[in-house]
Amino acid sequence: MKRYALVTGASRGIGRAIAVELAKDGCSILLNYKSNHAAAEETLRLIEATGGEAELMPFDVSQPDAVNAALDKWFSAHPDEYIDVLVNNAGIVDDEIMLLMEPEQWHRVIDVNLNGFFYCTRRVIEGMVENHHGRIVNISSIAGQKGHPGQVNYAAAKASLIGATKALATELATKQVTVNAVSPGLVETDMAEKVAEYLPERMRDINSIPMRRLGKPEEVAYLVSFLCSNRADYISGQVIGINGAAL
Ligand code: NAP
Predict the structure, then answer these.
(1) Mean pLDDT over residues 182-209, rounded?
(2) CA 29, chain centre distance (Å)
(3) Which of 87, 89, 164, 210 is the most exposed place for a label (fewest CB within 10 A)?
(4) Which sequence positions are flagged as catalytic?
(5) Which residue segment(s) compose the domain that 140 sits in?
(6) Model pLDDT, residue 210
């Protein structure tokens, strides 16, 4: 039986690296993204180049009808199969200090980073529970543990993901479904460039990270790969930081 892994936000950055790594582990990847088709095709090409398998599954994680439509279609086409691995990675930032933050900025960031987790997970866990096996990894952030200026919306979403991870882990523990959060520090992606533009000078300084460098998407992917393996059967409800000793 094939092992299917849905990775949200897999067209670029951390999600792409996770999709490539899980494909190397033998998973058939459901490669979600919002709209960057060219980037998603490149991830698909990278997966196929190493002998892996993936299919594109574009939808906006913040739109419950779109999430359900895409997943309903997949489940109808695969009546005897289920999604064993779910990596809730899709995320955005929309930075602004609280004094100037518009309600739309608050809602947009919560919708994608937090509500997206709910919509995707709600639809996928039934299969995991029925099959008594599953892996859920939620990509949180050091921002949800530490707090950075200009990111009240993002910090709220990422901290909430940690609470949701811990609660869901207890609900699914007897079903052999593990739920963990991975919490990266700054990682070399398009998002990091966007965030760096906003950070005050002192926080942009690479010396503020004890290891004196940003993380690489592949380094996050190795951790996710481990958490999704059977070597991590007894790890659930945890928040695992990957941040060069920055926290
Ligand atoms: P990124 O390079 O900006 O890529 C974002 C990915 O999410 C893209 O694949 C994008 O799809 C997808 N996406 C955005 N909105 C979406 C939506 N509404 N529905 C579906 N997909 C959507 O980001 P990244 O740096 O790899 O970040 C990945 C995750 O790690 C995020 O949750 C982020 O918060 C977290 N994180 C990142 C850092 C960092 O320093 N980079 C640090 C800590 C945590 P399109 O290509 O179609 O736009």
Answers:
(1) 82
(2) 14
(3) 210
(4) 154
(5) 4-242
(6) 97
